[in-house]
């Protein structure tokens, strides 16, 4: 297949689309990626890209076409301009860059914003190719949940845009079962909706992995590791409240690996609360470095704010945490918490329940090592059964073929 990927984010930014493109190339498909210039999550253009942009023109054999984009920087206005700049740049510059390229199918990667679907729909029309849209975030619900947009009228306009996009896609994939009803509200043809969750990344096997030198090694104690985006959705205030409740327990250490829009706030808040010695912030690292940070962990932490839209979300890190074989701590509601509990892979508390998280940390830390190992093994088994990489890739390949067949049947 000739697969055209439309994604605002791509390598060297850390997203699952990188793994997906690599797998498609391994399976013999021809892949072209239309994306922006790397600036997520810090909001500044990556130094390594600025120094040598040509070195980022291919990824595992796939051609990577990049269009100009206004970096995210900080603030809601700048973020909106970042989103709009990709839409316009992809539609205008992308049309020229892709003028001689055919596509059997167009795949849209949408962790947010949903606006990435607009240029994809345009290319679907001019290339006469089916569009498969993978919704990893729900708009307009998420915008309301994080407070980026509060106006009901504006949210209504965004809802009309979402309907416009979904109705012009051949298939719309939801990352959790809870997403499907929300997608259906904006999709006139319900038969095009499919459930497709993220897979467990095999890169997180910890066999023969040396612990990250950026984190001091400890012969005893209990280390909680959070890895990923540090933003509004991850509810850093509630997390710090839990840390503060346990600050007198010298055995417990927290490592927060990543970057994002709340990173500067987190840095200053740690100093303000006097927590900088028990919470380590190593920064952002490429995906392949993550196992070395996991190797320090006695527990892996996932958090989401309390909001109906987030209760429908399965954070992608949950599958990776499960596959790592390390007990999970979850401060979140809904489907994400249900997976941890169903897998018997860790402990959870309600979203925003800092006291509950503190209790869960103490409970997990007090468990015998053999009991924690059992939780980790449960996680691996569940991840392999429910989110195995091979079967996920096979299924997605089947969905792409299905979309092509649907398109051919209509023509």
How is the secondary structure organized here?
Elements: E1 2-6, H1 16-26, E2 30-36, H2 47-51, E3 58-59, E4 62-67, H3 76-97, E5 105-110, H4 117-127, E6 131-135, H5 141-145, H6 152-167, E7 171-174, H7 179-185, E8 193-195, E9 222-227, H8 236-245, E10 252-257, H9 263-273, E11 279-283, H10 290-294, E12 299-303, H11 308-311, H12 316-324, E13 328-331, H13 334-343, E14 346-349, H14 354-366, H15 369-387, H16 389-410
Parallel strand pairs: 1-2, 1-5, 2-4, 5-6, 6-7, 7-8, 9-10, 9-12, 10-11, 12-13, 13-14
Antiparallel strand pairs: 3-4
Helix pairs in contact: 3-4, 8-9, 8-14, 12-15
Describe the structure.
The protein has 411 residues and is an alpha/beta fold. The protein has two domains: 2-199 and 388-410, Glycogen Phosphorylase B (Rossmann fold, 3-Layer(aba) Sandwich); 202-387, Rossmann fold. 44% of the residues lie in helices and 17% in strands. The protein is built from 16 helices and 14 strands. The chain has helices spanning 16-26, 47-51, 76-97, 117-127, 141-145, 152-167, 179-185, 236-245, 263-273, 290-294, 308-311, 316-324, 334-343, 354-366, 369-387, 389-410, and strands at residues 2-6, 30-36, 58-59, 62-67, 105-110, 131-135, 171-174, 193-195, 222-227, 252-257, 279-283, 299-303, 328-331, 346-349. An eight-stranded mixed β-sheet has the order 3-4-2-1-5-6-7-8, with helices on both faces. Strands 11-10-9-12-13-14 form a six-stranded parallel β-sheet, sandwiched between helices. Strand 10 (252-257), helix 9 and strand 11 (279-283) form a beta-alpha-beta unit. Helix 3 (76-97) packs parallel to helix 4. It is globular. The chain starts with a strand and ends with a helix.
């Amino acid at each position: 297949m000739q697969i055209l990927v439309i994604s605002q984010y791509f390598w060297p930014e850390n997203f699952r689309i990188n793994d997906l493109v690599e797998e498609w190339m391994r399976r013999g498909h021809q892949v072209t990626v239309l994306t922006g210039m790397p600036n997520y999550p810090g909001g500044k253009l990556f130094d390594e890209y600025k120094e040598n942009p040509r070195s980022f023109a291919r990824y595992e054999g796939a051609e990577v076409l990049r269009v100009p984009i206004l970096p995210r920087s900080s603030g809601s206005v700048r973020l909106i301009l970042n989103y709009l700049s990709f839409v316009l740049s992809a539609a205008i510059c992308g049309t020229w860059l892709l003028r001689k390229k055919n596509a059997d199918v167009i795949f849209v990667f949408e962790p947010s914003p949903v606006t990435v679907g607009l240029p994809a729909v345009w290319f679907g029309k001019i290339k006469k190719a089916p569009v498969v849209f993978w919704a990893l975030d729900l708009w307009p619900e998420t915008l309301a949940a994080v407070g980026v947009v509060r106006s009901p009228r504006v949210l209504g306009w965004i809802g009309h845009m979402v309907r416009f996009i979904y109705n012009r896609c051949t298939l719309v994939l939801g990352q959790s079962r809870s997403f499907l009803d929300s997608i259906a509200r904006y999709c006139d043809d319900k038969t095009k909706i499919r459930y497709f969750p993220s897979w467990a990344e095999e890169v997180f096997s910890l066999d023969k992995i040396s612990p990250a030198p950026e984190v001091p090694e400890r012969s005893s104690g209990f280390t909680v590791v959070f890895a990923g985006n540090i933003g509004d959705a991850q509810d850093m205030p509630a997390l710090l409240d839990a840390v503060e409740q346990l600050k007198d327990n010298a055995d417990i250490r927290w490592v927060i690996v990543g970057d994002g829009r709340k990173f500067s706030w987190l840095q200053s808040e740690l100093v303000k609360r006097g927590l900088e010695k028990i919470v380590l912030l190593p920064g952002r690292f490429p995906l392949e470095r993550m196992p070395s940070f996991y190797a320090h962990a006695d527990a892996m932490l996932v958090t989401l704010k309390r909001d109906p839209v987030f209760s429908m979300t399965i954070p992608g890190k949950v599958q990776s945490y499960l596959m790592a074989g390390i007990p999970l701590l979850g401060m979140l509601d809904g489907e994400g918490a249900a997976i941890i509990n169903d897998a018997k892979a860790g402990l959870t508390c309600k979203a925003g329940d800092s006291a509950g998280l503190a209790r869960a940390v103490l409970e997990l830390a007090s468990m015998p090592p053999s009991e924690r190992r059992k939780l980790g093994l449960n996680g691996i088994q569940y991840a392999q059964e429910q989110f195995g990489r091979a079967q996920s890739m096979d299924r997605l390949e089947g969905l792409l073929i299905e979309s092509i067949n649907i398109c051919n049947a209509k023509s």
